[in-house]
Amino acid sequence: MAEAEKQPKVINKSGTLKMTDEVAATREQKDIGGRRMNRRNNRRDRNKADLAPKEFDEVTINIDRVSRTVAGGRRMRFKALVAIGNHKNKVGVGVAKGNDVTSAVQKATTRAKKNLITFNMDGETICHEVETKATGADVLMKPAAPGTGIIAGGVVRSIIGLTGIKNLISKSLGSTNKINIAYAVIEGLKQQVPRKDWNTTPAKKEKAPEAKKETK
Predict the structure, then answer these.
(1) Residue of 49, 112, 128, 133 with fewest CB within 10 Å of its CB?
(2) Residue range 144-162: average pLDDT?
C-alpha cells in the first residue's frame, strides 16, 4: 500500500485519474471473447501508404455525359477516358461509364490497368514511322531527333506524356473522336519493331538446280 501511495497520480481536467505511460504500456487490449488484440496505429500506416511512390501515373483525358432513353424518361450517366503509364515503356487506355464522375473514372482506371501494353523504344523516341487507324481516326507518328520535343495534339500528347518518349512528331488525319484517337495511338505503339529486327533486304529466292540432259 505504501508503494502505491508513493507513485504520482495524474489527474485529468475532469477530475478522473489518468494512466501513466508506463502503466499504459503494460495494459493489453482484449475483445469481447477475451482474446488479445494487436494495437495498430492506422493513421501512421495510412500515411506510409500515401508516401509510397505510385508505379503508374494516370490522366483523365475526357469526360462525357451520355443519356439513355428508358420507360420513365432519360437516364443520365458519365463516360470517362483514362490513360495510365509508368513514364517508361508501359501504357494503357480505359473507357468506362458510371452514375457519377468518380465511379466512371475509377472503372476506367481499372480497365486501363488491364489493357496495359509494353512497347519498344529507340532511345527517347519511337523506332520507326507508323500510321494506324481505329474506326474513323487516323494517326501518323514519326520519330524525331533529340531536342525536338513532343509535337502532337491533345489526346496524343496526353498518352505519350505518360511514356518515356521525349521526342515525337504526330499528326491526326481522320476523325476527332478522342476515344478512337487514343486507341489508334496505342495500336501504333504496339506495332513498334526494334531496329535489330528490321528486315530491309528482300529474301533471295534460291533457284532449283536444273537437271542435266543426258546425251545419247
Answers:
(1) 49
(2) 92
Residue 198 amino acid letter: W
- The CA distance from 207 to 172, in Å, is 46
Are residue 101 and residue 128 in the same domain, yes or no?
Answer: no
Nearest to 171, CA basis, from 207, 202, 198, 131: 131
Domain count, the chain: 2
pLDDT digits (tens, 9 = 90+) for 69-80: 888 889 999 999
- CB proximity list for 155: less than 8 A, separation 6 or greater: 61, 62, 172, 178, 181, 182, 185
Q: What is this structure's pTM?
A: 0.68
Asked if 120 contacts 194 with a C-beta cutoff of 8 angstroms, the reply is: yes
Which of the 8 DSSP states describes residue 154? H
* C-alpha cell belonging to residue 86: 509508368
**Cα–Cα distance measured from residue 69 to residue 36, given in angstroms and rounded to the nearest whole number:** 57
- State the amino acid at position 168 in one-letter form: L
* Neighbour tally for 165: CB within 10 Å: 27
Find, among 138, 190, 181, 139, the residue nearest to 163 by Cα.
190
**96 plus 127 within the same structural domain:** no
Q: Give the structural domain span for 97.
A: 57-117
Residue 61 is predicted with a pLDDT of 94
Mean local confidence (pLDDT), 115-142: 92
